């Protein structure tokens, strides 16, 4: 089965994710939340949507529940990530969801909401810095 990956947000951390993913799949879509994100993703030549994914209709319009296999919810807003993770999981029980969390408490809640995996970019950066220093 071909993978269809959707990334919600185009923040700096999302841009790094896109750099790594765009060579591993034929179908990578960015969903921008702001006009600035949309313009940046457009300049980078990405397939994209401009949508508020807190509306289930928009989740379905981008392919959640249909042909999207992987969904990365990587906004800088834990509450938004939690809500959208919960909504996406309610639509598609088999969707692979990676959600960004800012701390251990958020990671736990995201897993309870249906995230397949969570990631804390701050924790990863701190761990990397520690290993560089030691």
Note down, in words, how this protein is organized.
The protein has 134 residues and is of the alpha/beta class. The chain is built from 6 helices and 6 strands. The chain has helices at residues 12-21, 35-43, 56-61, 78-91, 104-113, 121-133, and strands at 4-8, 27-32, 47-50, 70-73, 96-100, 117-119. A 6-stranded parallel sheet has the order 3-2-1-4-5-6, with helices on both faces. Helix 4 runs parallel beside helix 5 (104-113). The radius of gyration is 15 Å and the shape is globular. It starts with a strand and ends with a helix.
Secondary-structure map:
Elements: E1 4-8, H1 12-21, E2 27-32, H2 35-43, E3 47-50, H3 56-61, E4 70-73, H4 78-91, E5 96-100, H5 104-113, E6 117-119, H6 121-133
Parallel strand pairs: 1-2, 1-4, 2-3, 4-5, 5-6
Overall shape: globular
CA distance, first residue to last residue = 43 Å
Please give the number of β-strands: 6
Oligomer: single chain
Task: Return Rg in Å.
Answer: 15 Å
Please describe the biggest sheet, giving its number of strands, its sense, and whether it closes into a barrel. Answer: 6 strands, parallel
The proportion of residues forming helix, as a percent range, comes to 40-55%
Share of β-strand residues: 15-25%
Low-confidence stretches: none
Structural class: alpha/beta
SSE order in H/E notation? Answer: EHEHEHEHEHEH
Distinctive features:
6 strands; globular; 134 residues; single chain; 6 helices; alpha/beta; six-stranded parallel sheet
């Amino acid at each position: 089965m071909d993978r269809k990956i959707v990334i919600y947000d185009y923040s700096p951390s999302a841009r790094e994710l896109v750099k790594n993913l765009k060579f591993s799949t034929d179908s990578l879509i960015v969903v921008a939340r702001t006009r600035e994100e949309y313009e940046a993703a457009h300049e980078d030549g990405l397939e994209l949507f401009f949508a508020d994914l807190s509306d289930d209709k928009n989740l379905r319009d981008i392919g959640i529940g249909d042909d999207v296999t992987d969904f990365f919810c990587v906004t800088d807003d834990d509450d938004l990530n939690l809500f959208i993770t919960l909504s996406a999981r309610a639509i598609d029980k088999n969707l692979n969801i990676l959600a960004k969390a800012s701390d251990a408490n958020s990671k736990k809640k995201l897993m309870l909401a249906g995230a397949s995996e969570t990631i804390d970019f701050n924790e990863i950066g701190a761990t990397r810095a520690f290993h560089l220093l030691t």
